[in-house]
Amino acid sequence: MIKLILFDLDGVLIKAKDIHYRALNVALGEEYAISIEEHLGRYDGLPTAVKLEMLSKDKGLPLEKHETVWADKQKNTLDMFGMELKHSIKLTNLFKQLKAEGYLLGCCTNSIRRTALTALSKIGVIQYCDIILSTDDVKNPKPHPELYWKAMSMMECLPEETLIVEDNPHGLLAATRSQ
Fold first, then answer.
1. Cβ(85)–Cβ(119) under 8 Å?
2. b/e per residue, 142-173, with b = 16+ CB within 10 A?
3. In this model, does residue 46 exceed pLDDT 90?
4. What pTM value is reported for the model?
């Protein structure tokens, strides 16, 4: 019997692929910018720190720029979330209904905690979440299953009692590995 439902954030609860893509490219500048095809095919769903490591190998992004680009990307993302994300009546009603039916609800995301909390608040579901875990809470981001293992453990639920809602290959792999 399902007791816990864990939602990914980007692509499941919010449509933020474009926001993450634009925020990263603004932070990278013209010299290291990536195409939308590159983002969707190679970088989508990964934490910014992992993307920056890949960009150093793929495009020669200097390691000394990582900290500045990372900080700029996070600021850009939060600014864009503030302007572009709106309250979702459909998601609020869904979360209300699931809570009324007795489910534990959570969000497990490769986004940083501040981004996750901002997004969940903007769309109107944060108050229904029993657990919110971000890439800040684990050593190994998705596609590693650590986020899901940690959420299940903290909520005292077994894998067979947990439904994971994911949309991208890294998250789907993490969800599959967590079972």
1. yes
2. bbbbbbbbbbbeebebeeeebebebebebbbb
3. no
4. 0.86
